[in-house]
Amino acid sequence: PAKIDNIKKTAAILAAALSMDKKELEAKFTSGKSFVWIKRRMDFAEAEKARRLNMPGLGFVKEGKRFYPKPHIASHLIGFVGLDSKGLEGIELGYDEYMAGVSARRTDERDALGNEILFSNADKEASRGKSLILTVDKTIQYIAEKELLKVVSNANAKGGMVIVMAPKTGEILAMANAPQFNPDIFFEYNNPNMWRNKAVADAFEPGSTFKAFVLAALFEEGAARPGDLFFCENGNYVVADRTFHDVKKFGWLSLEQVIKYSSNIGAAKAGDRLGRERLYRYIKDFGFGAKTGSGIPGEAGGSVPPLKQWSKVALGNISFGQGLSTTGIQLLSAFSAIANKGYLMKPYVVKKIVNEKGDAIEEFRPSVVRRVISEETANRVTGILKQVTEKDGTGAKAAIEGFEVAGKTGTAQKPDLSQGGYTADKYVSSFIGFAPADNPEIAILVAVDEPSGEFYGGAIAAPVFKEIASQTLSYLGVFPKGLKENKSYKTYMTYSDTHTAFDDGGGDLSHMPDLKGKTVRSVLRLTREIPLEVKIAGSGKAIYQKPLPGERIAQGQTAEVWFK
Hints:
Blueprint: H1 7-18, H2 22-29, H3 44-51, H4 75-78, E1 80-81, E2 87-89, H5 90-94, H6 96-99, E3 108-110, E4 116-119, E5 131-134, H7 138-154, E6 159-166, E7 171-178, H8 198-201, H9 211-221, E8 229-231, E9 236-239, E10 242-245, E11 252-254, H10 255-260, H11 264-274, H12 276-285, H13 312-319, H14 328-339, E12 343-345, E13 350-354, E14 360-363, E15 368-371, H15 375-388, E16 406-415, E17 422-435, E18 442-449, H16 457-460, H17 462-476, E19 493-500, H18 520-526, E20 532-537, E21 542-546, E22 557-563
Parallel strand pairs: 20-22
Antiparallel strand pairs: 1-2, 3-4, 5-13, 6-7, 6-18, 8-11, 9-10, 12-15, 13-14, 16-17, 17-18, 19-20, 21-22
Helix pairs in contact: 1-2, 7-17, 9-11, 9-12, 9-15, 11-13
């Protein structure tokens, strides 16, 4: 600023050239500082325009800028950097010290007039920042985000989340939030909640998904056996000054049916049989009320009421997932312990940190937190959770043809923060599950916040689980039950390899042709005249198809063909 002769004139010219406020520039020039930034992160054309002004005192500095080539993919997880390329949210914030690098520093010596007479070698050598290799798979992430955005839009919901985890290792394969945001222009969003990673930062009541953990505790403690009966009071159960309700008026239900049909009253009675001390211990052992240690910034720990606050009503409420809160990552981590034969794994998202040469300087591996339940108990619980996705179970819409799916629906009323109690019309609709049930490759949580109209987890979230799980299993090369699997082969789902077939007036278009042994090109040609969308998985020759040969085709139906 000291080199500027006419402050007002200079401010006016620069304001016009750079679309800035003249008064703001005058304030910068009269601040008394020896150096001030005029404008940063200018594009090349704008910088050249300012350079051509050839004004005294005006200098230019090249700065690096983080660029996100696929900005919406995993944006809440990755986060973003600020003006100085310093991490402000997400992984960018949590691992900023690794990725930032170090600038060179030098010492200058000057004479009495301020002229440089000597500078030494750099006191500190510059080094490039490290790179992170994540556990997230971009294809699975794409699948999760695509299906989540679809249900949020169709249900006119406030938002939602999806997490996909490898239950045997704790690796996070996908973490999606809706609505999305673009980290390249984060500053254009007025509401910081737009970039909040709700999958780890927001706590919510788990609802009926929590019944799976009560079931596990019952079996582990020997407090119940398969086939035990519970009277569900025909839909209304008075406990102290409260009345618990079921959606349907159930009489006697077996323990399996309590879970399959999601009876709140049956769950409350099961929790009462277990007792508050034992249930509290298992809740804590499954990891509720504490952060998972995932390394993802902003993770909350949820809340579990102190044992001294557990009245008989509280015990009942907690047994069907009310009165405590959890995060998405915490809930999926706990559920994955059932899938993993009783072992609770620490979830993680950073696989390794590498230097500029690509050499790993730090690696992260699967870590067992503790064994929560025995393998026998885990198998028993899994068997009952498989019944949830049977035709008459609450999670029937999560069923995948050719696979056994274990899971649990959840429909949780949201607390009324202003009046107390619970809202009458705001819900978190969820489904949590794993597949294949007896040898799980993936565990998935789907939660939809405040859907309009239909709100039951089995109707809203379960179909999303089905879509994500079926596409992910196909991508991972996990084939339907009964289909011979080649371990050396991996399926790759290419989303450009889908087309909608159409009827041009010829041939039998009402039944599915036999595609076995045909090439991808042949399949696409043969199905071009059929009124359905065809999804292609893999390459080579067709080995399996849905619908099966000869099955009747409905208008707008989707067909899937696996190749090897």
